[in-house]
Amino acid sequence: MRQVERSIFDLRRGLPVLVRDARDDSARATLVAPLEGMNDDALARLAEHAGNDCALALTRHRLALLGIEVDDEAACLPLTTADSAASVIEWACARQPSAAPARDTREITDNDAAALTLMRRGLLIPAAITVPVAPERMATVEARIADGSLLALDTRSIANYEQNAPRFLRRISAADVPLAGSEQSRFVLFREADGMREHVAIVIGEPEEWADAVPVRLHSACLTGDLFGSLRCDCGEQLRSSVARIAETGGGVLLYLAQEGRGIGLANKLRAYSLQDEGLDTVDADHVLGFGDDERNYNVALEMLSQLEIRRIELLTNNPNKIDAMSRGGVTVVQRSGVYGRLTAQNRRYLTAKAAKAGHWLDHVLGTAPDDVPATDN
User: Of 21, 83, 112, 294, which residue is the catalytic one?
Assistant: First the structure.
């Protein structure tokens, strides 16, 4: 656990880590580095330290933008010494790279796939520089591991961390916080094992007075909408209306989840906003950056509900994925109720894409005029 957590922080600082294939002792270890902060000198040092040419691991969504179709979820573009860091970064995240790479991809290894998992976990662009370490360079790399200047971890620990991290969610603190829509509210803060994400359960009313099917809202954090009232979405209105509705029905829980931008993080959400300003919808913008339709999972929400001893719920949502996630996780969704904000000229395209591409139940909303009708949930 600790090695994975430490490696995430190193990658977010722009430092490389070493990944070993836990299932194949004969496989080469791989140096892995993020795109953020990459320059020509850093790219050359990676190749020199490993004694091999680097490669760029990309998801199929990003490769499709480059005109490369692959059957797997990701593949690698081999790099040469002639490739500049600026070109590599363009291939990974620019909407229209000045020149697409004219070369064949190679199949992704377990080490490469683990590198992409680490990038996602660290809320970085889902792309990685990877380079297998040549046998003659391994002694030098091992010396760096021994002196603490390079972290090493294996693919099994990364997979186990991704699967089991929600089980290590800890309840940290709690306090009564009267809200405008619900004066009897208590905030309970949960922290993930790596310390990067904190989630809040807003417990409304007295649990012993709740309905058998507890009203629950899963609300993904939206700094721009929740705090600043962005017109690009309706998240702030949903947040406040959910609190008020739960209070009116006798109490329940709103889970405020640190899943900004459908799980891609604030930095990438702002990158996606810039792409949307160039004409892309919300889903296509995420694809350009290499992400899927929706990067969220709700395992943390399930763990929070478990610690709050909630098993039967009325789910406040228009998102079918949330219902499926709760049901698969052993929480019984007795009833679904919609949660709405206003449809505006600025959020219509966003909501239309969510209805058409993510299956949100919005037909009756999108058929009406902006500014005076309800919109959707995040």
Answer: 294
Is 286 tagged catalytic? no
How many structural domains is the chain composed of? 2
Of 164, 180, 199, the residue at which a domain comes to its end is: 164
Which 3 state secondary structure label does DSSP give 1?
coil
The 8 Å CB, 24+ separation contacts for 205-209 are: 205/246, 205/247, 205/250, 205/251, 205/252, 206/251, 207/251, 209/250, 209/251
Is 294 among the catalytic positions?
yes
**DSSP H or E run through 314:** strand 312-316
Residue-wise pLDDT for 70-120, tens only, equals: 999 999 999 999 999 999 999 999 888 888 788 899 999 999 999 999 999
- Structural domain of 200: 169-259+296-366
Q: Tell me: do 93 and 140 sit in the same domain.
A: yes
370 band by pLDDT with thresholds 50, 70 and 90: low
| Marked catalytic residue, from 156, 296, 324, 372 | 296
- Statement to judge: residues 39 and 52 lie in one domain: yes
